[in-house]
Amino acid sequence: MSRKISMKTAINEALDLEMRRDPTVIVMGEDIVGGTGANGEDDAWGGVLGVTKGLYAKHGDRLMDTPLSESAYIGAAVGAAACGLRPVAELMFMDFMGVCFDQIFNQAAKFRYMFGGKAQTPVVIRGMVGAGFRAAAQHSQMLTPLFTHIPGLKVVCPSNAYDAKGLLIQSIRDNDPVIFCEHKNLYGLECDVPAESYAIPFGEANILRDGDDVTIVSYGLTVHRALEAATALAKDRIEAEVIDLRTLSPIDWDTIIESVERTGRLVVVDEAHPRCNLATDIAAFVGQNAFGALKAGAQMVTGPHTPVPFSPSLEDLYVPSAEAIAAAVRRTLSPTGSRSHGIAA
Amino acid sequence: MSNERIKPIVMPKWGLSMSEGKVTGWLKRPGDHVALGDDLLEVETDKITNVVEAGESGVLRRVLGENDTVYPVKALIAVLADPDVSDDEIDAFIAGFVVPAADADADAADATPRYLFAETAAGTIRYATRGEGGPAVLLVHGFGGDLDNWLFSIDALAESATVYALDLPGHGQSTKSVADPSLSGLSAAVLAFMDHVGLAKAHFIGHSMGGAVSMRTALDAPDRVASLSLIASAGLGREIDHGYIQGFVGATSRRDLKPVLETLFADRGLVSRSLIDDLLKYKRLDGVEDALTAISSAMFADGAQSSVLTDLIAAAKTPILVVWGEEDRVIPAAHANALGDAARVAVIPNAGHMVQMEASSKVNALLKDHIGKAA
């Protein structure tokens, strides 16, 4: 049976269902029960934004409040995974990856390779990404490209509640480390989600809108901005195909290439900073593998090469807007389109 | 505003989930005379494209629905009127036309939920019911299908019948645990559903595997089945495209599933992105792969149909209608003649396995006629 629930509820439901299905699934992180020192039953915060609220009452000590030391508890989660559990560790804000990145990229990502395939590391590291939450420069970044860069990590970033639930269940069942990026400004967004368990396979992009004139590729929050842009462009009879990557590693190259071969035009939207991100990656891949299909240079719409500003008016300008995406699409349709610098604010 | 000489043509509502439709092409021009049943225009929903037929006759005086434009259900898209009606009257009619508010629709939907759930002896069964009075009709979908396969049939049949459509165990939003994946097991689940909703007897309309389930029910519980309408039915011969069955069970991605689904239609273009997405959402549910594997092993092992019921059902007393799409690539249309004189047979050109969707008007007319005569 399906009903409308928010992305936050969908994530909570995925954790609940997998904890019920598999006794090796545990959940750990800062304040995910009730805050350090507080009795979970009396003071169940369920994480800084309440995503894990209610799980302690259902699963008790399989949820663990950790000390404020990311290097310690992310390391513990990675070790527990290598020893047979399936930990889901919440990093709160992905911006905190810096203090535990050795545990992620040098340990978790390397175990299978360095132990000759004899070890697996089925850990999921969940955390919030993205700007627009008035949380300033250290809690607002879209650091997905840094994780995507590392072989051995799988990187997921859902754009809606249905995908969040199915991708998180797949992440927990997956035998490799998965970085699960939750855009905080999508937590409240509702859509139809089945009550049952289901898993969405990695590496399969979702086509959210059909179109023959231009391909817009994005993920996370900016998928919705791309859809807004597509609706606006349709009034001028410009039909955009909108592709939601869903997973950044593995990435669904086939769907991107097939679409661009049909439309001949590509706009990639990434909330991350403009250098070495998903937009540059995809534009380069398409340039190398489908150059003959392109009628114009690929356009990239990204956040600027600056920290995320705390000023609300500046922060609103930071995240790629529907208008900026529509303008990029129009550049691919104009004769001088390929001469843009491509680093749009 | 009412004016009996002016007849609005509105965006139709096909099935349970349609809220809007896109005009993709007019088959009549302004000024054309239109007779009852003429093809007027093509409309694309998020599920499928279909032709809208004229429900009344007259001159097509105005075409308001523009190509490639989406309109809500019940929006005015054209005006039929007699030739002597003045343009001013038509303008006034259009100006005064009020599209029923979406809120009113939502309230109506709350009063009669689109989908219902029954806790039966065979587990949770999802179903829908439409219409009141008249004979009871039960719609049974095929392998891998669900009650939305009757998108274009359920409301048409409900004009003169009380119609039930269910999801078989392992399918749609019914239980994914299939206690007995054989024809008898699925038939027992259908009977359990009928018991739950208090349906003593019904006219069965079965598509593909649902046809075989319906026949099995008619043989095992003849007093529960008033008539049989078998659409591209299994159980009338050994042959079946096993590649389709295996492809459907095995496909996990849009790219794998699309060519498989195209096998179902004469016009492959009818397989829309949203049709594929809906099926992928179903196939991703825990338990579905096991259920489909169990059912296909029980019914279609070794690349052929395990149960051929032709002789048994031909000897039964049930009135039978057999409908097939001439271009069926899953079960050959030659099976339509398996029952000889024991059945009325209609083979419809330019339609494939999903003939009830591809040629819905023709199939609905045949079904209503058959039920009317058998009732």
Could you explain the architecture of this structure?
The complex is a heterodimer of chains A (345) and B (375). With 345 residues, chain A is of the alpha/beta class. Chain A has helices at residues 7-21, 55-59, 70-82, 101-108, 111-114, 144-148, 161-173, 222-234, 253-263, 278-289, 312-318, 322-333; strands at residues 2-6, 25-29, 63-65, 86-93, 124-129, 154-156, 178-183, 190-194, 206-209, 214-218, 240-244, 247-249, 266-270, 299-302. In chain A, helix 7 (161-173) links the parallel strand 6 (154-156) and strand 7 (178-183). Chain A is globular and about 60 Å long. By secondary structure, chain B is of the alpha/beta class. Chain B contains twelve helices and 16 strands. In chain B, the strands form three sheets. Chain B has an eight-stranded mixed β-sheet, with helices on both faces. A four-stranded antiparallel β-sheet of chain B has the order 1-8-6-3, covered by helices on one side. In chain B, a hairpin with a 4-residue loop joins strand 4 and strand 5. In chain B, helix 6 (242-250) packs antiparallel against helix 7 and helix 6 packs antiparallel against helix 9 (288-299). Chain B is globular. The model of chain B is unreliable at 103-111 (pLDDT under 50). At the A-B interface, loops of A face helix 8 of B.
